[in-house]
Amino acid sequence: MTPDEFRELGHAAVEWVARYWERLPELPVAGSVRPGDVAAELPGAPPDKGDRLEGIFTDLDDVVVPGTTHWQHPAHFAYFPANTSGPSVLGDLIGAGLGTQGMMWATGPACTEVETVMLDWLADLLGLPERFRGGKGVIQDSASSATFIATLAALHRASGGAWRTDGVRGSFAVYTSSQGHSSIEKAARVAGLGDKAVRSIEVDPSSLAMRPEALRAAIEADRAAGVVPALVVATIGTTSTTAVDPLPAIGAICREFGVWLHVDAAYAGAAAACPEFRWINDGLDLADSYCFDPHKWLLTGFDCDALWVADPADLTRALSVLPEFLRNAASESGTVVDYRDWQVPLGRRFRALKLWFVLRWYGVEGIRAHIRDGVALAQRFAAAVRADDRFEVVAPHPFGLVCFRLRGEDDAANETLLRRINETGRCLLTHTKVRGQYVLRLAVGAPSTRTDHIDATWKLIQETA
Amino acid sequence: MTPDEFRELGHAAVEWVARYWERLPELPVAGSVRPGDVAAELPGAPPDKGDRLEGIFTDLDDVVVPGTTHWQHPAHFAYFPANTSGPSVLGDLIGAGLGTQGMMWATGPACTEVETVMLDWLADLLGLPERFRGGKGVIQDSASSATFIATLAALHRASGGAWRTDGVRGSFAVYTSSQGHSSIEKAARVAGLGDKAVRSIEVDPSSLAMRPEALRAAIEADRAAGVVPALVVATIGTTSTTAVDPLPAIGAICREFGVWLHVDAAYAGAAAACPEFRWINDGLDLADSYCFDPHKWLLTGFDCDALWVADPADLTRALSVLPEFLRNAASESGTVVDYRDWQVPLGRRFRALKLWFVLRWYGVEGIRAHIRDGVALAQRFAAAVRADDRFEVVAPHPFGLVCFRLRGEDDAANETLLRRINETGRCLLTHTKVRGQYVLRLAVGAPSTRTDHIDATWKLIQETA
């Protein structure tokens, strides 16, 4: 494809995306396709001769859009938001055009240094403690990978460095609350600890936050049994209900026992952009690593998880490999960062561009306005739920997520309610279980969501109930 | 950013990318920035008020471009190619605009099914054996991650399923040739086996391919010592020299001893698009998993590794997790694929779009022409090297990579030659060590590379020598 051919199709693609965003409010939030419907629309083999993308935009309209769950829809209230935005898409477009493979500083100086600076900008935006400032950050694909990296660094440290050469020898334990994300179990498993290594720590039944005294008891029991406590994962904003674990108390315990503390703020971390939410960082100066996902609530398209470590040498000591074909003068000078040693894969693309574009376009004020909009809409929804006796709000909701259910009804009734709401295609909510009960989750956060989307969704829920 | 604002800036971004591609041949291949130069050009904190991206294209020209190693430059002969192309960038642009998070079928039916079909298209393109056809493929970020996934599935199988719950208990070994990629060591390490678990199998000194009898001896020695042979990684096209391991013999040994065989064809796998290179697939019907990187030599921007497994249940049995908040009717029907259980991270973006765009634009014939161009240019270069008595070609070069050195000169002389060539900015080559000697690597593969780039580079090398 020549640059001129790219210009022509590129302008059409930009127009297609803009038009897609304009049409979004009219589309059903989740497609109504059945399994196999999309695949059936595609030929069984690649074309012999190129078709020069003739008809591609029609195919996108006819095959892809009907088969898409529209995460950017203003009434997509499922899971957590997976924001994207115009500036993010532009940053990705430039990055794709550059085609940089920034595995090392030498293979992408700008790719590396813009990333270092953007992670410092984010640390500034969120008011992170000093220990995470000044080149301590790196982009991972997701919070799952950040947790995995933290697990590896923790194992390396807990084993006195033997892990790197000898592997997992003896028993190690990982601690998280019963509300911790499934990626913590997965990280422990793929790190070779097995699911059994994960201790599910009891939560306070009201706040759903980890009980520090239960953490202490579990650590002490493991030590007494000859198990090495390697890692605690505390959560700021759990996936089920956005519960906030008490970091100061958890951090003190980790210090006392020499356990790596990783803080997973995948969704809620973005809220700290607003001074009124800075309290979520309390105790973060006791953490060894911290992550949140700009690709959730910070207007940056997937994938973009921001991970900070207090001592990046903990990562490089655990993860570095140095085959001859990657040796280069810049790396050996010791004056550059090679992010390949801060992650599991070798290659990496120029994801910092989209952060740069987003932070420039919106500025700190624009980001704060976006977070505050989401929170205000969620509080509006929660107030409406509370005002209707048929419903109850089942957990604290300081951010953009509200968990609620039909009061006094069984799980089946709530499940039916959710199914019927979603079947309308006018909104999409998901569910979880809280204290053993089936509850509905409404997560606000798309930049296009407005008061009328919230009110219309609440009306639909009331009528369906 | 409104759709109209996006249109305006989007058209400017498309123009910037097209213009960048047009300017590439005139740019020095590697920037001449020193460590810290790029970071010094950026403000220390994000702006309070958004700047609406004013001046962003000037900043890209002034800050990013000079700090970029231009992987898409026609004279970028370093490492392996990391192709991108117009259609790939368009596919990424559409994917970024959709903002789909396709962790499960339910959250992205089209994202999932287009991926399944594209992996079948690729299997067709490459002539992969039947065991990898019909929904056996998945996109990973990189071959590193594919190797890691294969390691995990192999451990699960070798442990009789105990690995998932109990972790790494006892001793397991991983085998690869002394020319295997560093990601194999890294995969073993992060899987909790430790670097010591990796057996570096001797190669034939001429072909640099794994010696099957040495593999057999290593497996037998481990078994005798109570170590469980878990995984063999054979390579089609090693990173140093593109050596091709003898799959039929290696596969037979893996069958005999019940060891998982993963085949890493990260770079060279793309060559099988051409019938004259189908021989690289010989023995692949004995493999449990296979991967290659469309983001290397198949015109598809990073990241896009294609991984196939003969039995996808090997992945889901090892990797599945099911928290309540991800339960959904489609998954429970058993009729859909949830790719989250085929990888380590949970989230995923719509990477199949770029494959669809690339395969449609070029067609099978266009892909073949691209591969053949790269091979022909490499052979032209090798012939030129051979015709000059001062140089020697040090390894077989069936694909697009040529390894060569100054004949009879020591490592320092060759290292100096490489440094001086690269300092001109007119081309970029890298190095490796072959049989203990420092050698230069010239890897062809960018779609814009033409005969005159090869000839000019060879002339520069001759003059510098």
What does this entry look like structurally?
Chains A, B: GO terms for molecular function: aromatic-L-amino-acid decarboxylase activity; pyridoxal phosphate binding. Chains A, B: The modification N6-(pyridoxal phosphate)lysine is found at residue 296. Chains A, B: Belongs to the group II decarboxylase family. Chains A, B: It comes from Virgisporangium aurantiacum. Chains A, B: This is Aromatic-L-amino-acid decarboxylase. In chain A, helix 14 (352-386) crosses helix 16. Chain A has a 7-stranded mixed β-sheet with strand order 1-7-6-5-4-2-3, with helices on both faces. A 4-stranded antiparallel β-sheet of chain A has the order 8-9-11-10. Chain A folds into 2 domains: 3-70, Up-down Bundle (dopa decarboxylase, N-terminal domain); 94-356, Aspartate Aminotransferase, domain 2. Helix content of chain A is 42%, strand content 12%. Chain A is globular. The longest helix of chain A has 35 residues, at 352-386. The first copy, chain A, has 16 helices and 11 strands. With 465 residues, the first copy, chain A, is α/β, with parallel strands linked by helices. In chain A, helix 10 links the parallel strand 4 and strand 5 (260-264). Chains A and B meet through helix 1, helix 2, helix 3, helix 4 and helix 5 of A and helix 1, helix 2, helix 3, helix 4 and helix 5 of B.
Name its key features.
four-stranded antiparallel β-sheet, homodimer, seven-stranded mixed β-sheet, 16 helices, Aspartate Aminotransferase, domain 2, dopa decarboxylase, N-terminal domain
